[in-house]
Each structure stands twice: as structure tokens, then as C-alpha cells.
Amino acid sequence: MTAKLLNILTGINRPSAPSSGGMILVNDLYQAMPDVHTTFLGRAPADQAWTAAFGHLITLSTTKRPQGPCFDSYVDELTREVGAVMEKIRPHAIHAQYLGLALSLAFTRTAGTIPIITIAHGPDVMVAERNAPEREAMNEVAAASAAIVAPTPVLADRIDRLTGRRFTDRLTVIPWGIPLSDARVRDQPPPSTGPLSLVHAGRLDDNKSTITAVEALALTDQPHHLTVIGKGPLREHLEQRAIELGLRGRVHFDPFLPRAELWRRLPNFDAFVFTTRGLEAFGLVLIEAQAHGLPVAYSDLPGVREILGSAGVAYTPGEPRSLAVALDGMGRDVHRRKALTKAALNNARRYDITTTGRQLRELTLRVIS
After folding, report:
1. CA 74/CA 76 separation, integer angstroms
2. Which residues of 258-270 are buried (b: 16+ CB within 10 A; e: fewer)?
3. What residues are paired with 229 via a beta bridge?
4. pLDDT value of position 188
5. CA dist., res. 152 & res. 100, Å (int)
6. Contact 249/223 with Cβ under 8 angstroms?
7. Sequence-ordered list of residues with C-beta below 8 angstroms from that of 44, at least 6 positions apart, any chain
8. Using CA atoms, how far apart are residues 292 and 290, in angstroms rounded to an integer?
9. Which residues of the chain have pLDDT under 70?
10. Which of 158, 162, 249, 348 sits at 20 to 30 Å (Cα–Cα) from 196?
């Protein structure tokens, strides 16, 4: 097998574009995996620049019905569509993205003797923790999988608990990564003390807790400025809250940016603010910020702590005052900020997407053999 092209079938049941961390990861991952031909199942519309990551992209036609009483019939219809693809391409292995979601169920029910490696992303685990039907789906996919990949030991343990510790020997940790060679660092960080130019990037929803960063700015001793980059259901609420707190001139909102544009802008800031308060599968944006030389103020979650180690400043998740103290400390102590910048760059080097791709390919070959 090592002398041949490895034929992998994978997919994510969303429009085929870099619209979220999971989609961006998959785009990077299969470009970084050597000697593979990847068929990707996704939804229209497809971003033409993005599809270059895959050998073949197939758009699913089954009408999406992810919730409600029609879910079972939806999965049945999707399974028939996936089965036809499977029969045609006959992959060496299936990479099922997201444990227990509809497309993974369809892969599970059509795989036959083709081995499945399931890759957990975080939202799938959060859904399974809240709802019994999703837990059942997760267990069905886990039972059919030869291996289950999680990016951190924390996420692997949560999956292990949700599946009743029945598949512990199938769980393996492969840390995620980014294309480090594309990252650029400004020549010299600004040496002065005083207000920081802060950036936060991500989906604007309840779990990402961007409100913590907005409210923290009203509690800081120094008039730091915050740029929020992203979209989501809480955008309007966040803008209104900033106005209520008298922060109109200190909080700026930008829309979701393609990665190339985000990476171009990151070196212009002094520090990155990470505010997730619940489960975070990995936090790729943390590594993106560090790879551009930004110190990180982060909510002290177990998985995040493992990824960053000492290369960041922790605060209590969901508590604006704790974050305000962390930000003021970074603003006052130039020497610490310089040390954090150096630590951030060193830490980011541990997470190159080429390493992720190599490890996943090696696991796939072991499963096949």
C-alpha cells in the first residue's frame, strides 16, 4: 500500500468553502497529506479555490433535514446517495468527519468492509452531551470505526465517557495544525507600555463568549482597543452591548475574513483574546495568532491549557473582570509581553499541518493493513 496512491473518501455536510475551523482544517489537512487521492462530499455552492485541496469534490443532492421528525428518513436518503458514491469509487478508507452526524451515519451504513476512521471536531461532542439521540448516533459511528481521532486528550476522554468506555482502545490523539510556512511575524513588537490593540476572531455565539471580551474592556484600567472579526447570531447583541458600556470608540466589529486576509492583519495587533467558555476541541485560531507573534490571553479551559502550556496568559472563563486584570498586566509589563511573544512563536512550531497529515496517513495505513 505504501507504494500506491491512498484513496480516501471523506466529507462535511456543509457548503464547500472555508467557513469554519473544521472546514479550514480539512482543507489544509488533505493538501498536507502525502500520496493520497481524496474524494470530498460536500454541499453546493463550492468555493473553487478551496476545492483544489481534493482530488475530486462531489456535491450532495439530498435535501438537508438535520433535525426533527424527518431526520431518520433524511439519513436513509443520504445513505442511499453515499452508497452509490461508495460503489463507484471504492476507497481504501473512509475518514468520517464529526462523530454521529448525518454524513458519518451514512458512511457507517454503507462502508461494508471498507475501514472507517472517525475524526471528532468538538461540536459533534457538544451535541451528543446535550441530546440522547445524538449520543446514540455517536455510539453507532464509534462502534463501526476502526479508529477514532481526537485533537486533544481532553476531547478524547469526553468521547470515551459518552461511549461508555467501550472503545477506549480505538481512540487516538493527533493534534491539529496550520500551514506554518505561510505565517509572517512583524519585525519588532511595539516596546511601549500602555493600551493594547487587541483582536478576537471566531464565530459570534454563546459558547465562544465574545461578550466576555467586550465587557472586560469596560473594566480595564487602560483604554485598550478591541477588534472583533467574525460573524454569528450574537453580532447585533455584542454591538449593542459595546454601545451600552460606552465603548463605541474602543470596540470595532469586522465581518468574517478569509484566512489569507486574517493572517495579513494579525501581525498589526499587540495580543489575541480567546474567550470560549465551554468545550473547545482545539482552538486553531490560537495557534494562528501565536504563529504571527501575538501573545494570547485565554480562558483557562483544560484542552486549551494543554495546547498553549505557558505560552499565554490565563483568566477565568466567562469572567470579564478576570480578563481585564490579565489584559492590564500585559499592557503594563513590556518585558513579559516580549517573553510571551517568543514563547508563542516557539509553541506554534509544535503544530504544523504537515505533521498532522503525516500522522493521519500513517494511522490510515495501519488500519488498512
Report:
1. 5
2. eeeebbebbbebb
3. 201, 254
4. 61
5. 19
6. no
7. 15, 16, 59
8. 5
9. 1-3, 187-191
10. 348
Cell 479508529 belongs to which residue?
147
Task: Tell me whether domains 6-177+352-368 and 180-348 share a fold.
Answer: yes
Instruction: Tell me which H or E stretch contains 357.
Output: helix 353-368
- Give the separation between CA 249 and CA 206, rounded to whole angstroms: 24
Please report the sign of the dihedral spanned by the C-alpha atoms of residue 105, residue 106, residue 107, residue 111. positive
Residue labelled with grid coordinates 495546547 = 307
Whose cell is 496512491? That residue is 5
Which among 20, 28, 22, 26 has a CA at the least distance from the CA of 354?
Answer: 28
Looking at 3.40.50.2000, 3.30.930.10, 3.10.20.600, 1.10.3370.10, the CATH number of the domain 180-348 comes to 3.40.50.2000
Q: Domain 6-177+352-368: give its CATH code.
A: 3.40.50.2000
Q: pLDDT at position 7, please?
A: 96
Coil vs helix vs strand at 11 = strand
Provide φ and ψ at 77, rounded to 5°: -65, -45
Q: What cell was used for 217?
A: 474592556
C-alpha cell at 136: 446514540
Q: Where are the beta strands (DSSP E) in the chain?
A: 6-16, 36-46, 56-59, 93-97, 116-119, 147-150, 171-173, 197-201, 225-229, 251-254, 271-274, 296-299, 313-315
Q: Taking the domains of the chain in order of start, what are their residue ranges?
A: 6-177+352-368, 180-348
pTM: 0.92
